[in-house]
From TrEMBL:
Keyword Signal: yes
Pfam families: SLH (PF00395), T2SS-T3SS_pil_N (PF13629)
The entry's keywords: Signal
Domain of life: Bacteria
Keyword Signal: yes
Protein name (record): SLH domain-containing protein
Signal peptide: 1-31
Domain SLH: from-to ranges: 36-98, 99-165
Amino acid sequence: MKSNKKLTLISTTAMAFSLFASLTLVQPASAAVKTSADFTDLAGSNAALKTKIDRMIADGIFEGVSGTTFGISQNMTRAQFAKVATKIYNIPVDLTLNVSSFTDVHADDAANGWAIPYIEAAKKAGLIDGVTDTTFQPGESVTAAQLDTVLLKGLGKTVSMASSPWYTDAVKQATALGIHPTSKAGDQAATREDLVVSSYGAQDAFNAQKPPVVTPSNPSNVSVVGDYRLGSVIDSGLTSSATGTITKTIAEDPTLSKFAKEIKIKLTNSAGEEIATPGIVQSVVSLDPSIAKVGLTSDHRAYVLGNKPGTTDVSLIVQVGNGEAKQLHVSVTVESTSVSVKTLTAGETSITEPMTMSVGDNVYKANFDAYTAMDLTATDNYGNKYEDLDIRNYNFALGTLFITNDVRGEAGSTVGSVSVDPDGTVKVTGNVTSFELTAVSASGVKVTSYVTLTR
């Protein structure tokens, strides 16, 4: 599905900047790397900007628009950004490629023909889409908000597009981090200076939150493991029914929602032994976000969430220690079958709760939370796990309720009462010594704990 807000510039998924530090510009040994001093249009720039430009040039992220001109005040075009994106990601580029999959990009186009290998490499990696299925509009400018969105996603931030205009949250977050182009509205075109300054700031912000580098002994194989079959929780309207602690925004955020799955990365050494490692995912991209949304947390773990039925490819860039980045792919299938509880277990099948005398009426009472007292764990039909209060918070999907049976009291007196509120609060009043507490899901799966009351 194409956006009418021209967000197709870049798939709104995480663009990681951890690779900045490892990127180098490959040149013959005799060639000297240019600096800001080599470009005539940078002569009047301040020292701080020149320092940023020098680092970006040295890292191979930027180069001049000619041998003597950097093009500092020019707008950044989609064709130029395609090249920058491939360098940021260290994506392999076939420089011999001279045929584009887009009808408006031609090798004989003096302005943009050179970008064909970069556009195709970025498209293949799932980074950049066309404005339509067949056109790319290589000369169109990148807006400040589109720039903000990419940099924020690269920092593992969640960007909401529900406001009007769509870029309100992106601009707010980017401004707070000091990476939004100064004094520019979100819909204004970003210049090459804006991209240098903003990328430089994002790089520093990422390095500040970057986890410690861990170099496993003899790593030899990195792969994606697990079943990535998910429910259509957004398109079906399920997330719209979220209430209480879990808002619709949370339920639809891949990095926060319990409906999402973490994309598991397996690392083995040369002996085939699995090696434990912290988050190593640098970026994650969904080829079709309308089917499956993806997100990247600040500790470099990737998550995927089902939107509407279909199958799509999700690509990841992972990096272990100081090794080279590797691109992995996983097929994600989103199904129309509703989310339901498949298994329900109780960590506590024998519960003891105290009863206390209430002030004024001399009646023994007890109140406790059924979810935590039973230590419930539910697993849905897509393999997602919910524990204790997660079950209550996602009850709009799981439909769990509690019933009581076999309520007993001391002999010689009327047995008291036991009730359970919709939120799982168990209320006991009067002569009750024990009862059975059963959790039942909407799918009919149940588990029972035996409760003993003490005085």
